[in-house]
Amino acid sequence: MVKRITKHSGSSDRKRAMVAVALSFTAAAGALVLAPSAANAETAGDHCVYNLTRDELTCSDTPEAAIAADAVGIQATSTLVRLYDDANYGTSNGTFTLTVDGTYNCTAAYTPIEFTVVNLGSAGWSNRASSAHTYHSCDVKLFDNSDATGTSSTWIDNLANLNTAAGGWANRAGSFQVS
Ligand SMILES: [Ca+2]
Ligand SMILES: [Ca+2]
């Protein structure tokens, strides 16, 4: 289903502007983002949030605490994707959550690509995701290598065991696209 914002005619323009900014961050500085020296980033903890709008990695002891820390001083953030080290959305061994500032819903079509996380390895997440959950109408496509290169998976909505995706995708992804 196509989701539209009908309340304010200017909304879609603002949304496009936000996407463009986020894309430029991920394309230009996706690896840099995840460097541990980032000024405000709290990187201790197995549950990390990567905020695309602010190009920031925030980690904590639970997914909820990481989301809360990421959202400090911000009216709202939207969670687009969560990757789990474990199958069945298990949180024992860590999660990687993708957020943007504000309210964001992915478009129904798979083109254009709305966001790209170019290097999961920079966050310690290369070859690690074993289940995936998406939100706000987003889906993910996983890639073997960084920069969305190499073999890719199908588009995935929610999948409790990434090995059931064609080709077998548990412990394999090096980057991913969102749309
Ligand atoms: Ca895993
Ligand atoms: Ca889309």
UniProtKB/TrEMBL annotation:
Endpoints of the signal sequence: 1-41
Entry keywords, A to Z: Signal
Protein name, UniProt field: C1q domain-containing protein
Annotated source species: Glycomyces lechevalierae
